[in-house]
Design brief:
Distance between the termini of chain B: 61 Å
CATH superfamily of the largest domain in chain B: Cytochrome c-like domain
Largest sheet of chain B: none
Distance between the termini of chain A: 71 Å
CATH class of the largest domain in chain B: Mainly Alpha
Order of helices and strands of chain B: HHHHHHHH
Number of strands of chain B: 0
Structural class of chain B: mainly alpha
Radius of gyration of chain A: 27 Å
Number of helices of chain B: 8
Helix content of chain A: over 70%
Oligomer: heterodimer
Strand content of chain B: under 5%
Number of strands of chain A: 6
Helix content of chain B: 40-55%
CATH architecture of the largest domain in chain B: Orthogonal Bundle
Shape of chain A: globular
Radius of gyration of chain B: 27 Å
Strand content of chain A: under 5%
Number of domains of chain B: 2
Chain lengths: ~625, ~240
Amino acid sequence: MQQGVGTIQRAFRAVGGHGGWLAGLLLTVGWLALPSIGFAAEGAAAGPTEYRDIPYIGSRNLIWVVAQLHLLLAGFVLGVPIFAWLCEVIAWRGGERRYDKLAKEFTKLLTSAYATTALFGGILLFSLVIFYPKLMNYLTDVFFPSFLLYCLLFLLETATLYLYWYGWDAMQHGRMKTLHVFLGFLLNFFALFIMIVPNAWATFQASPVVISEGSAIERAWAATWNPTWWPINIHRFIANIVLGGYICGAYAGVRYLSVKSAEDREHYDWMGYVGNFIGVFGLLALPFAGYWLMREIYQYNQQMGITLMGGFLSWLFIIQAMLIGVLFLGSNYYFWLGITYRIPGSEGKYRRAMLMMLVSLLLCLAVWMTPHSLVASIEEAQKMGGAHHPLLGVLGVMSAKMTVSNLMILITFMSFVMYWRAGKQDTARWAKLGKAVMGAVLVLASLAVIVLGVWGYFVPAIVRINYFSTSQVLIVIFVILTITPLTALLLKSARTTTEMVWGSMPPRAGYALVLNAVMIILLMTLMGYARSSSRVHWHVYGVMRDSSPYAYSPALGSASLIMGFCTFFFCILVAFIFWVATMGDKYKAATTSGKGELPHGIPAMAGGAPEEQQQT
Amino acid sequence: MGALGKPIILMVTMYLFLKFVLPNIPGSAPLPSSLIFLYLLLTVSGIVIYETLSGESKDAFWGPMQGFLTGEKIGGLQALRYGVLILFPLLVGWQTYGSTATSDLPPTEGRTIHPAPPGEYTGLSNPVPKTPDNIMQGKGFYAAFCSPCHGGNFDGKGPAARGFNPPPANFADPTTIAMLQESYLFWRIKKGGVGLPIEGAPWRSAMPRWEVELPDEWIWKIIMGEYDGAHQSPRTWE
C-alpha cells in the first residue's frame, strides 16, 4: 500500500502545475480502480498467481472467443494458399490466364486476412499469459524449443508471403514466373509447419505424453508426438481447405450479387464455382479424417471418447450432422443450379437424376441426424420403453452414421460428375461400355457400403472399426479414383452440345454460397468447443487439473451462444477485411472509367492490392 | 393449387406415416415429437430445394403463395387470405405460448444413457481368464442377481422389468454393451445407479450398487457371462 501511495504522490508531482490536481485525481482514481475492473489475481497472498479473471465477460469466455477467432482466421490463411498456388500452377502450366487472375484474387484475400490472424494470435498469447499463467508456465517449460521454432517459421512465412504477393506482377514471365511458383510452394511449406507446430501444443493438452528425463528438445519432441497430433494435423489441413474454399465462394457470391458489368458477373460466377468445388473437394475427405481422429481419441482414453461420442457432448454430433448435412445439400444445390442455369437445356435431362440424388441425400441425412437417445417427454419415453426407439434406435450408432456419410460422399461426387458431363455428348466408341462400367462400379460400391454397414451390427466393435469402416472408406475412394479418369477420358473426345454460360446464375446461388460459408464456420466453432470440452476439468488431461472457478463444462445452450457469437463476429470481421481489400480496386475501377488511366502506387498495407493488370 | 398440391400431399402423407404407420410396424413404438419434427423439417427442405432448381419450377411453387399473400388475382379467395393472415400469427403465438408457458408436465429429460466413466475405471481389463467354466459361473451369477430385471434371455425383459422406468438395459441389442468395453460394465455394475454422474441422472436408475454385495471377481465373471449369453463381444482395441 505504501508503494501505492508513493506512486500516487509521484504522479501528482509529475503532473504538477496549474490544473495538475485534476490529472492527479484522475490518475489516483484510475490506479485505485484497477483491481475492480478485473485482472484480480486469485490467491495472490501465497505463491505465484495461477489465474486472473475479468469481470462480466469471464477469462474463459474471453480466451474461448479469441482462440476461436484466431483459429478460424488461421484456417483461412493456411487453407487459401494451397489452392491459390494450385490455380497459379494450372495457369503456369496450362496457359489459362484466368486461373492466374483467380490465384491473385485469392492471394489478395489472404494477405488482407494475414495481419488480422497474427493480431488475434498476439491477443490470444497475451490473454493466456495474463489469465492462465500457471498453464502457460507449464506449457512453456515443455514446449519452449518449439515456441522458438514457431517464431522462426512465422518470420519465414511472412517474408515469403510478402515476396509472393508484392512480386506477383513483377514475376510474371520466364524464369521469374518459375521463381514465383516456387515462392508459392515455399509459402505452403512454411504454412504447413505453422499449423502443425501449434497443433502439438493443443493436442498435448488433450493427449499428453510427458517424460521427465532427457534434454529440453527430447521432452518437447515426446510431447509433440502425442497420439492425437497427426490425426488433428490431417483433419485441420483438410478442414482449412474446406473453410478457405467456402469463404472464397461466399466472397464470390457476395460480389456476384453486387457487381454490375457482365464481365464481372462472369468472373465472380466462375470464382464461386471454383470456391464451391474446392469446398466440396475437401468436404469429401473430411469425414474420413474426422473418423480417424475420433478413433484415436477413443483408443487413447475411453473416458474422453465416451464423453465426446456417448456422453454429454454426444448431442453436439447430432448438431454436427445437421450442419454437415446442410453443407452437403447446399453444395449439391449449387451444382444442380449450375446445371440448370449455366447449361441451357440441361434441366429437363437431369431433373429426374437430381430428384433421386436429393431424396437419397435426405434419407441419408435423416439417418445421420437420428440420435441414439432421443429427446422425449416422460410420456413419450414410456411409450417407447426408454430413451431408445426400438426400431429407429439402431440408426443412432456409428455403423449407420458411417454408412450414410459414405453414401452422401458418393452422391455428392456423382453430382459433380453429372455437372462435369452436362452439355457434352460422348463420341468415343467405347462410351457405352465406359458408362456401363461406371454405373456398375457405382451401384456395386453403394451396395457394398450398405452391406458392410448392416453387417457392422453383428460383428465385434473392433472388426467394424478396423475393417468394415476402413473398407467402406476404401470403396468410396476406389469409386472416385475409377470414375474420375474414366469420365475425363470420355470427355476428352466428347462433343460440346451446349456451351457453359457464366454469369447466368440466379441470386439464390450466391446466397447458397454464403450459407455454405456460414455453415462451415459454425461447424468449426462447434467442433472447437467439443475438442476443448472433451478435456473436461483438465488443462492438460490427467496431468494438470483446472483449479479455476471455470473448471466446469458449460451447458450446451450457453456454449451455443458463444459459438453463435464467434460465427457472427468472424463473418463481420471477414466482411470488413474483404471490404478493405477491395477498396483499392473499386477506386481504381472508378478512376479508370473516368480518366482512362490506372493510378500507380496505391497504398497497400497488409494486403492492399498492388497494381492489378486485367488479364483475360 | 398446381405445383403446390404435390408438396402439400407429400407433407401430409409423411406426417401420417410417421405418426400412425411407423409406430404400428411390429417391434416399433410411437415416435417422439422431436423426431417427427426433424423428419418433417428435412422433407420441407427437400421440397424447397427441388422446387427452386429452375426458374419455372420456382415460379410455379412460390407464385401461388406470393399471389395469395399479396392478394393479386385471387378473386373470391380474399376472405380466406384475410383469415390466413389473421390466423397464422395467432397460431405462431399459440405455439410459442404452449412451448414456454408453465406446465404441470415434467420437463423433457436429456438423460445421457452411457456417460463417461471415472478415470480409475478406464483401461481396466478383465483379470478373470475367459474359460468355459468361468463363463458358466458368470451366467449362474447373472441368473441369480441380474436376470430378475435384465431377463433370462439378456433382453431386458425380466419379471421385475415392468416395474421400472427407464427399463433395464437390453444386452441383446447390438447398440448397448457391444459398444462398450468390459471396464465400463465393471464400473456400472460395481457402482450402480447412484454412481452415475449428473448427466446420467442417477436418480432415475434403480440399478443396485453391487460392490456391497459381490466381490470384484464375481462381477468380472458376470460380465463374461453377459456378453456370452447376449451373443455380443466387448469393444476392444486389439
